[in-house]
Amino acid sequence: MGTERTTDTVAGAAMAAWGVPGRTPAVVCVHGAGVSSRQMAPLLPAFDGRTEAWAVDLPGFGASDAGGRRWTVPDLADALVEWTHARGLTDPCLLGLSLGAQVVAEAAARHPHDVGSVVLAGPTTDPEARSLPRLAVRLLWNNLYERPSVVTHSLRDYREAGPSRVVRSWTASRDHRIELVLPRVPQPALVVRGSRDKVCPGPWAEDVARLLPRGRLVTVPGLPHALSWAGPGRLARIVERFLAEEAR
């Protein structure tokens, strides 16, 4: 199976994505703060041929441009849904990691008729970590458990995006009040967390699932924050089981 690369202009910015074929509804994978779709790329082979899946570059990161704007989390959510329209996706499952989970939650709440279900993987940012120093400490602690390639690719993404854009992305994640958004997400929602995730603590993941009207939590033993890199096969199977259960 081949990987399709596309670029669509949404909200005045060229938004790039990579996709693999499979059954619908499609799974749209959204990366975290300061990085690109490289973070989600290992998931695509895990879905390939079974479930249609896409990894997007949010505006300003990877192969997408910023369109001369400063993007808030709600802005990114609107652009993501506009991109699904451009791709002709019906009732997609939006899967976000870290900041991507915040974008996905906003998209689901703001556009309830355009999103079929959501998966929030290692969702940020809990009220106990609303400072850049505290977030940085958590990230560094978590990196002790990540594969070295995760850190290497993240540093490459940071370098390509530039320090000001990376810091703005982290600031957007810090300032976004996801706990106020979650109760407004009407879709079936799955929260996934690695048991060794130091960025998304266990009690916070439990709160996220509780705040979601139709939420549930799955904890994956032994995995850190970057679930898409550390356990792409396991994450894909969890998502596909979730979609199958919702279809029934």
From TrEMBL:
<dbReference type="InterPro" id="IPR050266">
    <property type="entry name" value="AB_hydrolase_sf"/>
</dbReference>
<dbReference type="GO" id="GO:0016787">
    <property type="term" value="F:hydrolase activity"/>
</dbReference>
<feature type="domain" description="AB hydrolase-1">
    <location>
        <begin position="27"/>
        <end position="236"/>
    </location>
</feature>
<dbReference type="InterPro" id="IPR029058">
    <property type="entry name" value="AB_hydrolase_fold"/>
</dbReference>
<dbReference type="InterPro" id="IPR000073">
    <property type="entry name" value="AB_hydrolase_1"/>
</dbReference>
<keyword id="KW-0378">Hydrolase</keyword>
<protein>
    <submittedName>
        <fullName>Pimeloyl-ACP methyl ester carboxylesterase</fullName>
    </submittedName>
</protein>
<dbReference type="Pfam" id="PF12697">
    <property type="entry name" value="Abhydrolase_6"/>
</dbReference>
<dbReference type="GO" id="GO:0016020">
    <property type="term" value="C:membrane"/>
</dbReference>
